[in-house]
Write a structure and sequence with these properties.
This protein is an alpha+beta fold. It has 3 helices and 7 strands, in the order E-H-H-E-E-E-E-E-E-H. Helix 1 crosses helix 3. The longest helix has 25 residues.
């Protein structure tokens, strides 16, 4: 059984700007420390990525995998799942939910469920998920608010 973790953060930018950063996969290595490369391998007719190949190196954890993406019409929800098992993962699914706060800020809720191919004690797995989510949300916030997107 795969546990699901969820965290949220407020970003000082409108939803469309946050979504644009999330959907600009080739630029992930510029701001996501563990991502060494991200290549769009398939696109929908509207130009949004449908499949992205990632190479990840977070020191003790290195992996290579393809995620399949789906989007809400207004990009307020961006969700993904692992196309096939990788060296480190049996499955992965997740989403970003973007909520307009009405004041030019956006609340981003990140949900992630990962089933690893290697055994890991539940306590360590939860700590690793928390670190991944904390890092992902903080790096997203920094990237969007810096205006580098």
């Amino acid at each position: 059984m795969t546990d699901t973790s969820t965290q949220s953060i407020d970003i000082d930018a409108p939803c469309d700007k946050v979504a644009a950063v999330i959907c600009d996969f080739p630029r992930y290595p510029e701001w996501v420390s563990a991502v060494k490369s991200a290549e769009v391998v398939e696109e929908y007719e509207d130009g949004y990525a449908s499949q992205v190949h990632f190479v990840l190196d977070a020191g003790v954890v290195a992996d290579e995998y393809i995620l399949s993406y789906e989007y809400a019409d207004d990009a307020s929800r961006i969700e993904w799942h692992l196309v096939k098992p990788s060296k480190m993962q049996k499955s992965q699914s997740g989403s970003y939910d973007l909520a307009d706060n009405g004041d030019g800020t956006t609340t981003v809720t990140y949900t992630l469920a990962v089933e690893l191919s290697i055994g890991m004690l539940g306590m360590f797995k939860r700590k690793a998920e928390k670190m991944i989510m904390d890092s992902a949300l903080k790096e997203l916030k920094r990237r969007v608010e810096s205006g580098s997107a």
